[in-house]
């Protein structure tokens, strides 16, 4: 069993809707913070997670509830 396997943040297919909901829930987030670039998804999510001061588990839960 792989103990250090990274589980990806559960971003749904409609990022535009999720982005809007995140901005409503966390007004400090900007469009630049949530700019999705192909191939840089994980990097963007880590930056947002850090800006919100959330752990990966907390951030994943936020994304899952959107």
TrEMBL record:
InterPro entries per UniProt: YjbJ_sf
The protein's name in its UniProt record: General stress protein CsbD
Organism: Flavobacterium suncheonense GH29-5 = DSM 17707
